[in-house]
Amino acid sequence: MTFFKKKAGKLSRQTAESFLATFTILLESGFSLQESLHVMLRSGQYDSSVIQSQISELSQGQRLAQAMKNVHLTPSEINQLYLAETHGNLVDTLRRMVDYQSLFNKQKQLLYKTILYPALLLLFVFSALFGMRSFLLPQLLASGMIDGHHWGIQLVEQAPIILLIGILISVVLLLLTQSVFSRKTAIAKAEFLSRIPLFGSVYRCWQTSFFALEWGKLFRQGLETNQIILCMKETNKATLIQELASVLEQTLVQGGKLTEQLEQYHFLTPEFALIVFQGEVKGRLGDELFVYSQLLSERVFQRVEKAIQWIQPVIFLFVALLIVGIYAAMFLPIYGNIQGVIE
């Protein structure tokens, strides 16, 4: 008799991405959901308890989105799976998720490589600053070559304290922001993020691309606006798509217009509401939203790549200014004293 049942583990994010890619390939090859999971179970590549749990839940009639709870997926990805089972384009949705993860990881690696060398150079500069303060500066002060009251010397002496205070203030502000942010609704968070300079425009395009894609697929399947909103409302609680669906449902119940409500949100592009309005009139809303989603996705990745290209020059410029500032703070007093002796 079994008294203790082994609890299914949870795949790490990296393993989850590999799991999703393999699962997608099997589905594209013609395997069913259950067959794909059985193949992956026999391969022994992934945690068997996770796959067995998924097979069990699917056998009980659970949705795939529910069965994937032991896979490290984001709430947005879970919502995509839920909606994919509604509009029927599950394989296409999985392929898009896998391709997005691959592209995101490439850009993340590019960002790391871009930042690594400037970060090491910055670390070297700060190490040199501390070394000058600890070894060179005391000798210069003892020799009388420099005036300890000079602003440059004072700056070098106080630099570690200033840096430490700056780090502490940054940490406190970060914790306070995180605490306040966690109590906000998903819509309030999205509104805030969409208004951040530079980042906000990219975030707005990304969110609009997601909504346009999912709505486009649902409209293509012949669902009406009310049905789509109900589908969105059944997704994960406290997510942006679920909260937005609740607000839109209330708007329609009160006799309001969908497009006017969409125009109020800063995390959606102004063109999105216009496309919804024109698409409803023309009767091709699904196709128009799908095309618009593709255009926005390309725009997002182009902007991210351009931003990454600018990061390294900006950091190098900051490091150069820091080096010049350190040397000026240390050696201007020396040059001043030498000039005074000559005169």
From TrEMBL:
CC terms in the record's Gene Ontology section: plasma membrane
Membrane topology per record: Multi-pass membrane protein
Residue ranges annotated for the Type II secretion system protein GspF domain, each copy included: 19-138, 211-333
Domain of life: Bacteria
Localization of this protein: Cell membrane
Transmembrane region(s): 115-135, 155-176, 314-335
Keyword tags: Cell membrane, Membrane, Transmembrane, Transmembrane helix
Keyword Cell inner membrane: no
Keyword Membrane set for record: yes
Family, as annotated: Belongs to the GSP F family.
Record-linked NCBIfam families: T4P_ComGB
Protein name per Swiss-Prot or TrEMBL: Type II secretion system protein GspF domain-containing protein
Organism: Candidatus Enterococcus testudinis
Origin organism lineage: Bacteria, Bacillati, Bacillota, Bacilli, Lactobacillales
